[in-house]
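Hi again,

Forgot to attach this to my earlier email, sorry! This is the prediction with 3-methyl-2-oxobutanoic acid bound. I've pasted everything inline since the attachment limit keeps bouncing my files.
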Amino acid sequence: MSHVTTATLIQMKQQHEKIAVLTSYDASFTSLIEDAGVEVILVGDSLGMVIQGQESTLPVDVEEMVYHTQCVARGRRKALLIADMPFMSYSSAEQALGTAGRLMKDGGAHMVKLEGGATQLETVRQLTANGIPVCAHLGLLPQSVHKLGGYRVQGRDDESARIMKEDALALEAAGAQMLVLECVPTGLAREISEALEIPVIGIGAGPGCDGQVLVIYDMLGITPRQLPRFVKNFLPSAHSISEAIAHYVKAVKDGSFPGEEHSFK
Ligand code: KIV
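C-alpha cells for the complex follow:
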C-alpha cells in the first residue's frame, strides 16, 4: 500500500472498497495498526477516557492532543493521520485555525476532525480555504454529551434525521473531505453515505457506511466499562493483539462487521 491520501479514500468509496479506521494514541499501537493495513488512524479525544481515565472527552486540551499526535506520527508509515480538535478549541474560525495549525505543524496530523453541523460551516470553509483538510462528525457528538443528555443514538425521528442529512450535505459543500457518523440508525447512515461523494465512516452507524472506526482499546476489550453495543471485542478469537487488529480489518473489508447486533434501527 502506498501512502493513503484523501484521493485514495475517494477512490476506495467509488470502487466500493470499505475503509478501515482505528484510533491510536501512541507509537507502539500505531505500528501494529499499520502492519494490519488500516488506511486511516484517528488520534481521538477519546484518549481523555481510555488513556486519562476521565469521565468524558471534555477535559482534553490542545497540548495533550498535540503530544499524542506526535507519538502516533512517529509510528505512522502509510496511513492518513487525523487528529481531533478538542472541546472549546474551535469556538470561532480564528481559534480553529490556530488549533489545526498546532495539530498539523507540531503534531504531524494530515487532517483535523471537529464535531457539529450547521454551526461549524464557516469554520470548515475557513480551514479548507487555508489548506487544512477537515473530517466532520455528526450524530452522537461526545463533546456535547451534557447538551444531548447522555450518550444516545441520534437521528431517530424524522425531523432530526432530516437536519442531520442537510448538515452532512452542507458540510461537504463547505469543503469537508470526510464525515464520521456516530450512533446513527442504519437506514439514515446508509442514506447519508449514498448522498455524499466524500467517504462516510461509521461508528455505531451500521454496515451501509463507506468505512468503520472503533476505539482501539474497545476493540481489544481493554476497558473497565461495559462495551457499547456497537463495539466488537476482537481479542478473544485471536492469538495476539496484531491478529485481533488484522481480524478487525478483514471484518470491515468483507462487510461482516458491523453486524445487525452492533447497529441501531
Ligand atoms: O474520539 C474518538 O475516538 C472519536 C471516534 C470514536 C470517532 O471521535
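The chain has a mean pLDDT of 97. The chain has eleven helices and eight strands.

That should be everything now.

G.
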